[in-house]
Write a structure and sequence with these properties.
The chain is an all-beta fold and 126 residues long. 0% of the residues lie in helices and 48% in strands. The protein is globular and about 40 Å long.
Length: 126
């Protein structure tokens, strides 16, 4: 079992920065590949960023490349999402998720993940 708790969201002006944290519990956390997703009002949940259990090979959706950085500290059971140069279109609830240990799909598909946090709100004002 993996439990995930996000924090670090808030209200920020366009061009500002936020760092989201996802604290995981459970002895298998450090073996899990992790993703960040977001859901804006009236829209479907979408992939944002992905990191393997070792911290290598991050992937990003095109709209955040060069602005967002995903990282993790397995000693602290925490995954981070550093968000810089924020835009109003980044406004959403952000979720972290743990990818299934046995997966056959691709890292950006929601069905690849079996544990989700409760989400943290990010609001970017113009």
């Amino acid at each position: 079992q993996v439990q995930l708790v996000e924090s670090g969201g808030g209200l920020v002006q366009a061009g500002g920065s936020l760092r989201l944290s996802c604290a995981g519990s459970g002895r298998t956390f450090s073996n899990r590949n992790m993703g960040w997703f977001r859901q804006a009002p009236g829209k479907e949940r979408e992939f944002v960023a992905y990191i393997t259990w070792s911290g290598s090979t991050p992937y990003y959706t095109d709209s955040v490349k060069g602005r967002f950085t995903i990282s993790r500290d397995n000693a602290k059971n925490t995954v981070y999402l550093q968000m810089n140069s924020l835009k109003p279109e980044d406004t959403a609830v952000y979720y972290c998720a743990a990818r299934r240990r046995s997966s056959s799909g691709t890292y950006y598909e929601l069905t690849e993940y079996d544990y989700w946090g409760q989400g943290t709100q990010v609001t970017v004002s113009s």
